[in-house]
Amino acid sequence: MKERDRLPPGQVLTQRFPVLHYGSVPRYESLDDWDLRIFGAIEEEVRFTYDELTRLPTTRIVADIHCVTRWSKFDTTWEGVRFRDLMAFVRPLEGAEFVMVHAEHGFTTNLPLVRLMADNVLLAWKYEGEPLTPEHGWPLRLVVPDLYFWKSAKWVRGLEFMSEDRPGFWEQAGYHNEGDPWKEQRYAG
Ligand SMILES: Nc1nc2c(c(=O)[nH]1)N[C@H]1C(S)=C(S)[C@@H](COP(=O)(O)O)O[C@H]1N2
Ligand SMILES: [Mo]
Predict the structure, then answer these.
(1) Which band of pLDDT confidence, cut at 50, 70 and 90, is reported for residue 189?
(2) pTM of the full predicted structure?
(3) Pairing of strands 98-103, 156-162
(4) How far is the CA of 70 from the centre of ligand 2 (A)?
(5) Does residue 48's CB lie within 6 angstroms of at least one atom of ligand 1?
(6) Full domain range(s) for residue 158
(7) Which end of the chain has fewer CB atoms surrounding its CB within 10 Å, N or C?
């Protein structure tokens, strides 16, 4: 594919890997107390320790990523567990079609469950074959390449199933609820 056909409207290609987030970078002395909680509109709450999570079958994806502040990066490689594969352990209630992703320090972002079920959506702990750095989301981040990268929460700790959609952190601040870079859904209204 030609470079310009891979670049969504209004985006600029970068070779760097910018670090972008609100607030400070969480530091962990150990992951003994770390867990991933899956809760909300599901039959039974599920909890994974870091060991349990990283022992699940892993998937590697190569994807282009697009930040709403207009940088895009091609061919980034991520490794982790597919969101869809995690769903083997979760029984959502009928009509629970939305998920709020909860990260450290109260960061949240909301996504429709169907988006998260895509083949290329990972809960990742490796980037370019190496463990994530703290800045880029160690020990666990979401990667949703098909949406603006603010949906790809770093330092994920919880997945809350919801029967009704609710705006997350940037979505409340005026970012678009869906955030499809090909439709240039940057801001609401
Ligand atoms: N927890 C958390 N995750 C976050 C953010 C944040 O502020 N907090 N910012 C998002 C935004 S706007 C972008 S562009 C990407 C940046 O990821 P990177 O720093 O690994 O490039 O993280 C996303 N995930
Ligand atoms: Mo971003």
Answers:
(1) confident
(2) 0.97
(3) antiparallel
(4) 8
(5) no
(6) 38-183
(7) C
